[in-house]
Amino acid sequence: MDFVQQIKKTPIVVNESRGFYTCRFQRSVYQRRHYHAARRHHTGAGSKTAPGLPDAGRLLAMRDEVSIDLSYHIREQTKKDLG
Fold first, then answer.
1. Which of 12, 26, 47, 57 is the most buried (most CB within 10 A)?
2. Is residue 32 part of a domain?
3. With contact defined as beta carbons under 8 Å apart, do 30 and 58 qualify?
4. What's the rounded Cα separation, in Å, for the pair 29 and 11?
5. What pTM was computed for the model?
6. From the first residue on, what is the mean pLDDT of each consecutive set of 10 residues in the chain (83 residues)?
7. What is the CA radius of gyration of the chain?
C-alpha cells in the first residue's frame, strides 16, 4: 500500500483465475497467429504478417519475457488443484 499511496493511484483487484494474462491474452494472440499462418499456407500467400497481428519474432520475445514455462506451470497447478 505504501507504493500505491506514493503514486496516488487506486489499485484495481481483478478476481480472475490464475494466469489471467497468460491464458486470456497470449492464448488468443497465438491462436489468431496460427490461424492466419495456416490460411496463408493453404492459399499459398506470401509470408507477410497478417494486418493487426504481431510478427512471430515479437510473439516469441513476449513469450520469453513472461516466461517460457509459465503457462505450463499454471496449467499443471490447476490440474492438481482441481483433481
1. 26
2. yes
3. no
4. 27
5. 0.28
6. 75 63 62 72 52 62 68 81 84
7. 18
